[in-house]
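[job 0412] stage=fold_complex status=start
inputs:
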Amino acid sequence: MSGSLDAYLILAGLLFAIGSFGFLARRNAISMLMSIELMLNAVNLSIVAFGAFGTDAAMAAQGSVVALMVIAVAAAEATVGLAIVIAIYRNKRTPLVDEYDAMSQ
Amino acid sequence: MLMHRLVPIILGLAVIGVVTAVAAAMLVFLGQNWADALFWIFAAVMIGSGLMVVTMRDIIRCGLAMIVCFGALAGIYVILGATLLAAAQVIVYIGAISVLILFAIMLTQTKDAPSRLVFQTQAVPAAIASIVIAIIIALAVVATDWGEAAQRFRITADALSKVLFESYVLPFEVISVLLLAAVIGGVYLAKREPGGPS
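[job 0412] stage=fold_complex status=done
writing structure:
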């Protein structure tokens, strides 16, 4: 089972669906950011699985390289996203997104 | 009230326990190999802790469950043969991003915040939509013929660095500039203005 591409892709799809549910349903802005991280990890898993089950070893290395770059972009996204959440929290005094009805005050 | 709080935890633990038991049964009774059993255990831990991330009430516990989820994903990377990527996953996600998120949680949670409502009013349509997404992805994966995908390649750090610093040098440099810009932007956004509120 661990030797087939299907298992990894279905696992990645499940994790992506969980992350999308969290992003749509949670009220807390940081919970939504955590759900985005889950979705990015799911996409990473599918990239690595595609590379590892590719035609040759060079494709496997390319899959890992692309996944490393996704990790770096995710780190940048987390930095800026959390800074924005903290900046909004400083103005609004709440981390709940359904109380953010205006961007400026 | 206590039962209401414990329901997501019990649900996540039940999912993890059931699939771990299935993996152990596969290992013992069906004669499968270690890679399969480990894959099932890591998959169960990852999906179970992912469900705990999106359903639990206490957001600190959500962050801790997210660390467990990332660790299980690093194990799956090892099973796939991408060992260097697993190390990077542990260092970057568990070491850096999780700590960043936990710090942000501690900075933004207040005692008097109305924390009894975890979900928005659109939680039920969101659940339906994500279940539909999962079913569609699973159907597409099963229905597609992936060709000769039977063999698997281990990715050594040597081969990976050759690809990274020969074919992907320009994206590598762009990523470094992006990280610098993100650091400066994060400091600027989160900086407290001298005359600003509090």
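[job 0412] summary: Chain A has a mean pLDDT of 88.
[job 0412] exit 0
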